[in-house]
Recover the amino acids of this structure.
């Protein structure tokens, strides 16, 4: 099955700095890579995703890059703000019928943005 | 409406109790999922339903029994749970074709005493 590794486990940055979180995956059949933000006591919220036919995707201060050859993908947050503080999870999922679309999550990164 | 709802928000049950968790979505999604999340850990997949049929069971103990009575509802029946089953139980839904996004409900925080 799929195995997703995520680094770092904790990340502390100053407000306004950039933050980068990296993930690697093992299953070459995976072709959908979402990132979720989870605040304490709340549900995971999808913040951005990328499919394997795309190398980079941006949405305002957030960007995700994918290197299929190396099987790794990264989340980039620019101009960080205190409200970006949360746990971020990467995930991977194979294409195909729903029965194989289950998400495998990375272990999570606790991001703290210091004001 | 892009919301998945779950009830109850909190549940405390003894090891001999029988209880059920409920999940509902009205986005027309035909895939629904149960995940279990322990503190400071990522969500772990338990079950996947596709078109109201169970398509994945991640070797979950039989004390957890899922049910999908219709395309909008997903239940998780609990019986004879152990204290280590205490966790946040998350429901999610997605389309079966096209966009892959999974939308999560707020979860039920379960404590087994």
């Amino acid at each position: 099955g799929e195995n997703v590794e995520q680094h770092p486990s904790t990340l502390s940055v100053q407000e306004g700095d950039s933050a980068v979180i990296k993930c690697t995956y093992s299953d070459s059949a995976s072709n959908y890579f979402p990132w979720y933000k989870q605040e304490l006591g709340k549900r995971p919220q999808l913040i951005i995703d990328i499919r394997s036919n795309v190398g980079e995707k941006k949405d305002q201060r957030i960007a995700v890059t994918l290197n299929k050859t190396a099987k790794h993908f990264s989340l980039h947050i620019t101009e960080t703000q205190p409200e970006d503080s949360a746990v971020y999870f990467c995930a991977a999922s194979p294409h195909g019928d729903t029965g194989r679309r289950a998400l495998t999550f990375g272990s999570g990164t606790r991001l703290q943005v210091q004001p | 409406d892009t919301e998945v709802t779950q009830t109850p928000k909190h549940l405390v049950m003894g090891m001999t109790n029988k209880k059920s968790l409920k999940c509902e979505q009205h986005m027309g999604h035909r895939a629904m999922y149960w995940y279990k999340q322990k503190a400071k850990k990522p969500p772990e997949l338990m079950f996947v339903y596709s078109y109201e049929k169970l398509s994945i069971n991640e070797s979950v103990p039989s004390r957890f029994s899922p049910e999908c009575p219709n395309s909008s509802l997903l239940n998780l029946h609990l019986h004879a749970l152990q204290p280590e089953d205490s966790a946040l139980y998350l429901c999610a839904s997605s389309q079966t074709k096209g966009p892959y996004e999974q939308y999560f409900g707020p979860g039920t925080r379960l404590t087994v005493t």
